[in-house]
Design goal:
The protein is 40% helix and 24% strand. The chain is α/β, with parallel strands linked by helices. It has 2 domains: 173 residues, P-loop containing nucleotide triphosphate hydrolases (Rossmann fold, 3-Layer(aba) Sandwich), CATH 3.40.50; 82 residues, no CATH class.
């Protein structure tokens, strides 16, 4: 049986009179991708913010590794093995090379201060694992390129490499293919499929082709509530899901229907 790395129980978050998450419960297991989908305003961002520690729920619990982290900080959750892609992206420095950026993430994981960067930028203990991660994400050929000169898809690969360089066990991915071309999205989907065995992954994504290509479990949120949760085959054929989310998205043209 897959190892449960995260469990959230009955999360509720209100903003004034708006209930953003309403009694949401789900689990993340190692080796699985759990996708969360829903129309705009469904509560997806609020949910991922509660998991990462950026928001505290009004009620409910977040359990990581068997420990209650409901009120733990973002840093404390990172220390327990959680990484969120967009948070790592904030560490990207355009004037640094791709390799330098990943090496900075390695350095942070090792507990060093960035102010010593000039002293360790040639340190094999930092550079070697950074290059290994670039190879794993198949962007090692861009190691010496300044991050500012990457394509959008390559930048998303760099963000993922930086997240993985912190040695997480849990990944929160907030629309990893957003803004990418068809080929770039396909490359990222392939990479996520290759690495997922090592992590428990929560994927928030609008593109249904990406969701159905990657997800082992899909949870559908509508107005903060769970409309449905289960394997892709059941979600794809659920009339309520198609009416409330998939059909709406097709009508609005915001995303492609699954093939």
């Amino acid at each position: 049986m897959a190892e449960e790395l995260v469990r959230i129980e009955h999360l509720v978050k209100r903003f004034s009179g708006l209930v953003a998450t309403d009694d949401v419960s789900l689990s993340l297991f190692k080796g699985q991708i759990h996708a969360v989908i829903g129309p705009n305003g469904a509560g997806k961002t609020t949910l991922i913010n509660q998991l990462s520690g950026r928001l505290r729920p009004d009620s409910g619990r977040v359990i990581m590794g068997g420990q209650d982290v409901t009120y733990a900080s973002v840093a404390a959750r990172a220390h327990k093995g959680l990484a969120r892609q967009f948070q790592i992206a904030s560490l990207c420095y355009g004037e640094f090379t791709v390799l330098d950026n990943v090496a900075l993430a390695v350095q942070a994981c090792q507990g060093h201060s960035y102010r010593f960067w000039r002293d360790v930028s040639k340190d094999a203990a930092v550079v070697d694992p950074a290059m290994a991660m670039l190879k794993r994400l198949r962007i090692e050929h861009r190691a010496d390129v300044l991050a500012v000169n990457l394509s959008h898809g390559e930048h998303r690969q760099l963000e993922l490499a930086m997240a993985l360089a912190t040695q997480p066990t849990i990944l929160l991915l907030d629309e990893p293919t957003a803004g990418t071309s068809h080929d770039e999205a396909a490359r990222i989907v392939g990479l996520l499929a290759e690495i997922k065995a090592d992590y428990a992954i929560l994927l928030v994504e609008h593109d249904m082709n990406t969701v159905f290509a990657l997800a082992d479990v899909i949870t559908v949120l509508v107005n903060g509530q769970q409309l449905a949760s289960g394997p892709p085959s059941l979600i794809r054929g659920n009339p309520a899901v198609r009416a409330v989310y998939l059909g709406e998205e097709k009508t609005q043209g915001e995303t492609r229907q699954p093939q």
